[in-house]
Amino acid sequence: MKLPSIDLILTSVADGFRRPESRSRYEAVAAVVATYGAFSLYRYIAKRNRRRRWRDVPKDVVLVHALPRGRLAPNVSPFVLRLETYLRLAKIPYQLDFEEPVGSKGKSPWVTWNGEEIADSQIIIERLGRHYGKDFTSRLTAEQQAAARAISLMMTEHLCWGLRVWRYELNRGRAVVQSMPSAPFYMRLGMPLFRWKIMRDLRVQGIGKHSPEEVEDMVKKDLAAISLYLGEKPFLMGDEPSEVDCTVFGFLAQLKWHYPGSPYEAMLEADFPNLSSYILRVKEKLWPDWDQCLARP
Ligand SMILES: N[C@@H](CCC(=O)N[C@@H](CS)C(=O)NCC(=O)O)C(=O)O
């Protein structure tokens, strides 16, 4: 079914409001309800049409639904970068979709894989790892597996929140919008609303109640722990990368490229040079096409 453009729908609604006979209160309410109904129908049909198109993705190819490409690193989302890095490490073929970045759990990324929708980068990686026999962590010693889990969770459940404080509270989402030049206009317009939601999440999580200095200190301690654990090794668990490297890379690459002017960007170079060269090492090994993956200005 061919859909009318969103501009056409909005223009017809605006015309309706301009007519004198539409100005009564009831008509205005009816117009709002009708607009909402039309918009919901539009969204429903568009969503169904997208899923029909996605059926054309070949079997066993993972379709990653993600935020648009970033300017200096392939994605502004550490979780998307983590997942893509894993798919590259595991040599699992994938394609990207930027039309519907947020999945059923209200987060990005999610994937469509052989007709199934799976949300959450951790769950996706575990599922695909089992299916394709690419569970690199299971090849580590028990002690390394425990360390890998602890480091991974420190990234996704602690450092992540500290970084959000800078991105959305202190920097007011400016850098993240600038880092996504191809973001559709509704994402740019929606930033204040998204910021409001994230600020609420930060307070509920608890980190939003600390001062910026306290948060910076927490992030620095996380970075110091990873830096110490990495030491002189090429990758966190030794000579070869595993899932935990994908996770750490997903986050640290943000600091290196998508946190311009933040204390963390400077910290990485000045205090943790082994992390800085580690990021470049992972990039070189798994992202040989890095430059081609960046958003074109
Ligand atoms: N546990 C999720 C977290 C994903 C996540 O938080 N993604 C962010 C983008 S970096 C997001 O979608 N945030 C939207 C929100 O929190 O409403 C995963 O591992 O995929």
Describe the protein's architecture and organization.
With 297 residues, the chain is mainly alpha-helical. The protein has 3 domains: 47 residues; 71 residues, Glutaredoxin (3-Layer(aba) Sandwich); 154 residues, Glutathione S-transferase Yfyf (Class Pi), Chain A, domain 2 (Up-down Bundle). Helix content is 60%, strand content 5%. Glutathione binds next to helix 3 and helix 4.
> What's the helix-strand series?
HHEHEEEHHHHHHHHH
How many helices in DSSP terms?
A: 12
* Distance N to C terminus: 33 Å
Ranges where pLDDT stays below 50 over 5 or more residues in a row are: none
Helix content: 55-70%
> Into which percentage range does the β-strand content fall?
5-15%
CATH class of the largest domain: Mainly Alpha
Counted up, domains total: 3
Task: Write down how many β-strands occur, each being a DSSP E stretch of 2 or more residues.
Answer: 4
Q: Per CATH, what is the topology of the largest domain?
A: Glutathione S-transferase Yfyf (Class Pi), Chain A, domain 2
Bound molecules: glutathione
What overall geometry do the principal axes of the alpha carbons give? Answer: globular
Mean pLDDT: 94
Looking at the overall shape, the CATH architecture of the largest domain is: Up-down Bundle
Strand line-up across the major sheet: 2-1-3-4
